[in-house]
Amino acid sequence: MMLLKIAWRNIWRSKTRSAVVIFAVASGLVGGLFASAWMNGMAKQRVANTFSLETAHIQLHHPEFADNFDVKHTITLTDKKLQEILKVEGVQAVTSRLKIQAMAATANKNMGVTIVGVNPETEIEVFGLYKKIDSANGDFFTSKKKNAIVISKALAKELKVKLKSKIILTFQDYNGEITGAAFKVIGMFKTDNSPWDKMHVFVRDNDLRKVVEIPDGQSHEIDILLNDYEQAGVISADLQNRYPELLSEDWSMIQPYLSFITEYMDIYMGVFMIIILAALGFGIVNTMLMVILERTKELGMLMGIGMNKKRIFFMIMLETIFLALVGALVGEIISMFLIEYYGKVGINISSLAEGMESVGYSAISYPMLEPYRYLQITILVILTGILASIYPAFKALKLNPADAIRTL
Amino acid sequence: MSVIKIKNITKTFTETEVPVHAVNGIDLTFEKGEFAAIVGPSGSGKTTLLNMIGGLEKPTSGSVEVHGKDISELSSSKLIDFRLHNIGFVFQAYNLIPVLTAKENVEFIMQLQNWDKTKMKERTITILESVGLGNRVNSKPNQLSGGQQQRVAVARALASKPQFILADEPTANLDSKSTTQLLDIMEKLNKEEKITFIFSTHDQRVVDKARRVIKIDDGKVVSDVVKKVESGSF
User: Fold this and answer.
1) What is the value of ipTM here, to two decimals?
2) Is the CB of residue A373 less than 8 Å from the CB of residue A36?
3) Is B156 in Cβ contact with A306 (below 8 Å)?
4) Which residue in A10, A301, A302 is closest to B99 by CB distance?
5) Which residues 174-233 of B have a C-beta within 8 angstroms of A?
6) Contact residues, chain B, for A6 at CB < 8 Å
7) How far is B103 from B123, CA to CA, in rounded Å?
């Protein structure tokens, strides 16, 4: 107890010097934590957007569908399966889709696209694309008009079309014949992933089914939204057992990139913080060496009157840890406020929007850091304090009490 | 009963270009309850002798026995432990722990010795009162005068009831009044607590108070005088 008291009071003996160290640790942590939170927020948004717009959490396909998007590789008895899957614990919503490779043509241009045939009622329970259409740009199949199509603003720009314009879609039907139909643009969306935007168009599944001549009850894809995306692996494996004739894939299998982002973020933040703390650690070592030099006489006296080496070592270690911890606490509090604030208002780097969206990231990002990260950082700071104290403490232990007491 | 037995000790410092023979074969014995002063000019070897008695420095040859145990053979960590349990130190520059109050400074050694909390608190107050600082227990060293700081140092040295106290020029930085006060207190505690005091000093006032005066020069004892004990004194 007395050692704790001495160590704590010792760090306030030279207020300016301690303040400099505390400021250095705090600013290092603010920089590190905020940058980590920013990157983390961007990655989390990217993952959330992908779930919400592209993959959901689990997808079921005909096992060969992904090989060449063959129209005939369908899932049969789709409605029955949707009902069954909805009853699986952890499943929040399900929908089915038709997916066909096609050419989209206007008077100006032809482009290769994927037509996604959706059931709007269930689609909006699983996917959030409808939220990406603002009121000035139509809607997501709210009217019952036939042969309606929702495309992205980016594709509209390429094809030079606007709302109510017609687009001709040409594709291979169920019997292998080339066929096509005209669709009227009723909505235009914009996500943060411009390449994806340009490659996907959305129509009602019933409209598509008629033209492609896909039998009733068949679809190409079942998309499943879960209550907790981390359960995807388990539930996907369960579905694979239930439907051995299909291929069940969770989001990490559909988009390995997402899994990479999630894991990479952990590594990135870890390495980033370790580099910052290592730099701070050297600063702390330097400060503690000065402390030892200044207090040579006092340390000699302490050894002289009977304070053993273990206690001397522990006292210096405690001082170092306290110094680092105070800085960490200040840094973490400031970081919390900054991350909380920018997590609400967002950081807008619209000047880089085009570049960011070309790789699927939003121009407005919302920094976020999970609470356990602060605990991790605190533990890392304590470890830094312990490591930074070792060399100065050994220096102190090498002192000869008689010589040390004689120093001025 | 002899507390300390010094047998033909020498100390040569070899770190300098020319070896310095600080202590050249000293034999001394100190009995329990002595109040002894080691005097001599600067560089005569007083502090080195005191440091060897206290186990702060190891003799080049010879031995220092405390209660029959040769401390010059102990490892540095055992010596620290030995000092903690057997010796009280009073230094010329007081050397209190600046971040602790007078009370905490005195308690410090007892805490290192794992004293019972209640006994430790009682002992602290008793000893601080006996050095006349009962009203300054919560003052930090920088709030005390030099004399008061040295009295706290004496209280700290005495608190854990060591076998003997080594005081290296304890009055060197004190004014006349503080010196008298300090010497009176140490003499009183020497009698009350029956603890052996050994000083190294230049100060004639300390020499006058001491009941035994050992004069050394060039690292050798040149005289060792035990004063006549007055009737009624220890």
Assistant:
1) 0.87
2) yes
3) no
4) A10
5) none
6) 97, 99-100
7) 10
CA closest to B54 among chain A residues:
A304
The secondary structure of A28-71 as a DSSP string is HHHHHHHHHHHHHHHHHHHHHHHIIIII-SEEEE-TTHHHH--T
| Residue of chain A whose Cα is closest to the Cα of B107 | A2
Q: How far apart are CA A344 and CA A367, in angstroms?
A: 8
Q: Please tell me which residue of chain A has the smallest CA distance to B112.
A: A307
Is the pTM higher than 0.80? The answer reads no
Residue A389 to residues A131, A285, A302, A375, Cα–Cα distance (Å)? 55, 7, 18, 21
User: What 3 state SS string does A162-224 have?
Assistant: CCCCEEEEEEECCCCCEEEEEEEEEEEECCCCHHHHHHEEEEEHHHHHHHHCCCCCCECEEEE
CA–CA separation, A101 vs B126, rounded Å?
95
Convert the pLDDT of each residue in A268-300 to its tens digit: 888 888 898 999 999 999 999 999 998 898 898
Q: Measure B126 CA to nearest chain A CA, in Å.
A: 20
Residues 126-185 of B with CB under 8 A from A: 156-157
Of A66, A68, A48, A83, the C-alpha closest to A221 is A66
